[in-house]
Amino acid sequence: MPVTPAPWPAPAWALADIGLLVNTTSLGMAGQPPLPVDLTPLPHPAIVCDIVYKPLYTDLLLNAAARGNPVVTGIGMLLHQAARAFALWHGLTPAVTPALERAVLAG
Questions:
Q1: 52 and 13: one domain?
Q2: Number of domains in the chain
Q3: Are the C-beta atoms of 64 and 48 separated by less than 8 Å?
Q4: What is the pLDDT of residues 48-87, one digit of tens each?
Q5: Dist. CA 37–CA 12, nearest whole Å
Q6: Residue 49: how many other CB atoms lie within 10 Å
Q7: Were 51 and a residue from 7, 34, 74, 76 both cysteine, which residue would form a disulfide, CB within 3.0 to 4.6 Å?
Q8: What is the CATH number of the domain that holds 45?
């Protein structure tokens, strides 16, 4: 499936026929304004992912879930990028586990 970037703000046609919507900005993160996007034209099976991890569930994800879209938080990307960086710096690859995820989210 091709990846097609859209101009911002996203026009309705950009959301009408997609399978994945990813917020790659800091909008929605604690201390930042929410991502202003109208999800109305988004197909209900489309997955909505937000790379923001604080808060874990941004307004974008809460709004998408409320309308029935599957959602993916940004915590997995944060942990797997950190594990790779740690491996590059220290030569050891930490395991990304549920316990690690809980510890990061608690801190």
A1: yes
A2: 2
A3: yes
A4: 999 999 999 999 999 999 999 999 999 999 999 999 999 9
A5: 10
A6: 20
A7: 74
A8: 3.40.50.720
DSSP calls for 33-45: PPP----TTS-TT
Q: CA-CA distance, 13 to 40, in Å (whole number)?
A: 11
**What is the side-by-side order of every strand in the sheet holding 71-72?**
20-23, 47-50, 71-72
Task: Report the alpha-carbon distance of residue 43 to residue 19 in Å, rounded.
Answer: 7
Cis amide linkage into residue 5, ω under 30° from 0: no
Structure-block tokens of residue 53 = 């991890």
Compute the residue count for the chain.
107
- Contact between 39 and 63 under an 8 Å Cβ cutoff? The reply is yes
Same domain membership, residue 25 and residue 65: yes
Question: 16-41 pLDDT, tens per residue?
Answer: 889 999 999 999 999 999 998 999 99
| 65 & 92 share domain | no
Q: Distance between terminal CA atoms of the chain? A: 37
Q: Is the same domain home to 81 and 67?
A: no
Domain span at residue 78 reads: 74-107
